[in-house]
Amino acid sequence: MASTTSSAVKCFKHDVFLSFRGEDTRENFASLVLVFGRACKDYGVQDEAKLIRKIVETVSQELRSVNSIFDEKLVGMDHGIGEIESFIGTDLDDVCMIGIKGIGGSGKTTLAIAIFEKLKNSFDGASFVDKVCVVSKTSGLQSSQKQILSDVLYHQGIRVHSVYDGKAIMKKRLASRKVLAVLDDIDHINQLEALACACNWFKSGSRIIITKRDELVLVAHGVKWIHNISLLTGEALSLQ
Ligand SMILES: Nc1ncnc2c1ncn2[C@@H]1O[C@H](COP(=O)(O)OP(=O)(O)OP(=O)(O)O)[C@@H](O)[C@H]1O
Ligand SMILES: [Mg+2]
């Protein structure tokens, strides 16, 4: 890219950015490309043409994943997406924790995935932590802390020696990042304390979405916005 003429640079900017709406989206995209470029250099990719091809492949893959989730036949999802988006849009300068509650099989994870895929590119970093309650028993909560740090900071080599250590690293490293995190299937408050203990762990504008079968732990953790998936709504009855 260093040898590109100024008119070619102008054309490149026009072609790439035409389909991106809003300053934030352009900035996020540009910073992602920068991070990706540095990561490639770290892994020894020196050839610019190869680097650009890799960037195009990765961006195309991301765009495909956004579309594919909405290709599925999901019933009555619009109401849930709309309500959660309205929660996400309030208090933009604050960090906000949002709960999704509903009985087993009511679609909490499916809804969280739909929201995550729709919005993840508007944040500095995003992480979907699947089945926290299971992972906490099998690999320990430090493995979920490591996942969030790796996803958000785009760096795989982070070491987390203990949950206590993980909390300290998260608090220090995530404070400058606008984060979208989904903590799926929480069943104990110690999981929230390990993965999203306080709003001041994250930069303002961050959004933490937590799925849980009931609201007790959510309320105890101070989650104000809770979307309830009720199977008795008209939309859900159309599943029959
Ligand atoms: N709106 C929907 N339309 C069609 N299928 C759906 C919808 N929501 C969920 N499903 C399907 O229902 C099943 C259960 O959904 P999901 O795993 O999201 O439930 P859950 O509430 O997270 O359950 P659990 O509490 O056990 O984690 C999945 O197979 C999913 O594809
Ligand atoms: Mg689930």
TrEMBL record:
<dbReference type="GO" id="GO:0006952">
    <property type="term" value="P:defense response"/>
</dbReference>
<feature type="domain" description="NB-ARC">
    <location>
        <begin position="93"/>
        <end position="234"/>
    </location>
</feature>
<dbReference type="InterPro" id="IPR044974">
    <property type="entry name" value="Disease_R_plants"/>
</dbReference>
<dbReference type="GO" id="GO:0043531">
    <property type="term" value="F:ADP binding"/>
</dbReference>
<keyword id="KW-0675">Receptor</keyword>
<dbReference type="Pfam" id="PF00931">
    <property type="entry name" value="NB-ARC"/>
</dbReference>
<dbReference type="InterPro" id="IPR002182">
    <property type="entry name" value="NB-ARC"/>
</dbReference>
<protein>
    <submittedName>
        <fullName>Toll/interleukin-1 receptor (TIR) domain-containing protein</fullName>
    </submittedName>
</protein>
<dbReference type="InterPro" id="IPR027417">
    <property type="entry name" value="P-loop_NTPase"/>
</dbReference>
